[in-house]
Specification:
13 helices; mainly alpha
Length: 280
Amino acid sequence: MLEGFVLPGVPMPVFWVFVGLAIIIQGVSKSGFAGGAGILALPLMMLVMPVHLVAATLLPLLILCDMNAIYHHRRNVEWRPLLQIYVPALLGILAGAWVWWRIGQEGVQNYEQLIKRFVGVIAIIFALYIVGKESAMAWAERYRPGPRIGAAAGIAAGFCSTIAHAAGPIVSLYIFAQHLGKTLFVGTVAWTFTLINLTKLPFYVYVGLIRQETLYFALFVVWLIPIGSYLGKWLHHRVSEARFNRIILVLTILAAIQLLFDINVIHIALDLLVGEAVTT
């Protein structure tokens, strides 16, 4: 089942540590604790898995998390701002799907490093957002962007989400700036992500990202999501969210640097360990 999912030279225990940690962190993020932490999942998995399989594996898991979120917030939604960002997001999703289609036509290996660098840049932007989240929210609170900003935000969100599941700050800032109140804000954001991710699904299938083996692998690791969700609720009462976010920030930047500069820390560490074992 794991044929093609593990990058060459990555030991199986290392693969499962990185994948397991990434999905658990995604579950923590979806629990409502440390909402920006989910950005770490993509770069972590890309260190041990082919880039296209990471995007394909995460989408069904994200949809399951989204469905759980809207179950709890099924009545907490403001449709006007949601549609202002979701409708133009369709253009971004189409653009992102076209990029994946071209990559599939010309060979993933030809674009693998480019995608990793794109994800690395997005991860660093996300990390900066985590650091300045309160300032960003305070800035957004002073404004009420209209449909034009919504169109630009929607296209950007659709594209970033399709390529790297990374539309969080864009959607959150735009919806927050609509001054909906906490309950409607959380519900509207949950509904927006649900619609965007569900819209991406048929395109992922069409361009060949999601296949039978991808769904099997996602099903094999889905049990880690509720563990992450439970852990997030447990951490909520015991650990400072700011401190947890700082840990996520450091890990995200480290993973992003590896993707940006093609530094395979896993192989370097293994070579060092093997070298020490030989000398001793």
